[in-house]
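Q: Hand in one record:
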Amino acid sequence: MKRIFLDKLSEVVEITGKDANHLANSLRAKKGDTIVAVDKFGNTATLELTNFNSEKIYAKCISEITKTEILNKRVTLADCLPKQNKFDTIVEKATELGVDKLQPLISDRTIARPGTFRVKSKLDRWNRLAKEAAEQCARDTLPEIGNIKEIADWLKEISPTLGKFENDKFNKQGALLLFCNERETSENLSEILNAYKNCDCEKGIIILIGPEGGFSEREVREIKNYGGVSVSLGKTILKTDTAAISALAIVQYELN
């Protein structure tokens, strides 16, 4: 069934702008069709399209409006911005893989550093791509996309929410921060995730991916000081966008 995301659900819905254009032209919807609608508050309902005109589509709710259950064990992908438009692909694939939040970062070796005037346009684009991907893969929620931040500032911000992983055990006191490190030889991502899920922790997981060239030595020390666990994705060195998608796929497989 066709699916769209709206600002707010009610018994009678007026669909306008890009959403109406997407329904009418891309999805070829017509009067009498039923669609699934999800709003930003996590409400879901089935709508029947009742009327079309050149700019608006009207619909009525034909099911109970239900609240989507939000799990505590959220998955965040924190990714140092890659070159060109590779983050577009990361947004799309991460959305399909069920990520709850994407956090774009600037690190020591980050090459892509958008100026202030470009940040808003990039965030608008990433939110649009996430919405389109969520509709395509029939998600019940939209991933949150954070503002672009320096990695040092971001680490300080999240530090009170992090737990510690020591001696193959997780203390359950906060989120588990895992950073993919091509120089890591002993800790495997799947093994760490198995230890994590066996400790019955309800907190979230944060996957941190470096830029082209990886993290600097200073950053590796800083991430570890905040409780980050260095993990390997295998023997081959992956491109930064491939690493992000691979790590999320492993997380989804191990946890779900």
